[in-house]
Specification:
The structure is a single chain. By secondary structure, the protein is mainly β. Helix content is 0%, strand content 52%. It has no helices and 11 strands. The strands form 2 sheets. Strands 2, 4, 5, 6, 9, 10 and 11 form a 7-stranded mixed β-sheet that branches. It has a 4-stranded antiparallel β-sheet with strand order 1-3-8-7, with no helix packed on it. β7 and β8 form a beta hairpin.
């Protein structure tokens, strides 16, 4: 099993980034996928989840600014991040889940997102 994130980087406040997570080694379409972030000195925070059927969940802190989506043909989950704020700075991880609110099964290595002027 492998989850590989990409798309992180440095962006100014108000800017946008699109994260991607390419999955392999499991039946991607059967799993819920989540984006989780961890800022320095803070605990990991669930950002968004998309179910195998397309249902979505967003943390209040990103609702209206972030959009999670998936392409089962490409075994990839995305996180479109708009109107970025300094408090969005964190390492962003993708993770697979056997159920929408189930335990996390597999994790990627993370991609750094830094929002700063």
């Amino acid at each position: 099993v492998q989850l590989v994130e990409s798309g992180g980087g440095l962006v100014q406040p108000g800017g946008s980034l699109r994260l991607s997570c390419a999955a392999s080694g499991f039946i991607f379409s059967s799993y819920a996928m989540s984006w989780v972030r961890q800022a320095p000195g803070k605990e990991r925070e669930l950002v968004a989840t998309i179910g195998s059927g397309g249902s979505t969940y967003y943390a209040d802190s990103v609702k209206g600014r972030f959009t999670i989506s998936r392409d089962n043909a490409k075994n990839t989950v995305y996180l479109q991040m708009n109107s970025l704020k300094s408090e969005d700075t964190a390492v962003y991880f993708c993770a697979s889940r056997t159920a929408f609110t189930g335990r996390y099964d597999y994790w990627g290595q993370g991609t750094q997102v830094t929002v700063a002027s």
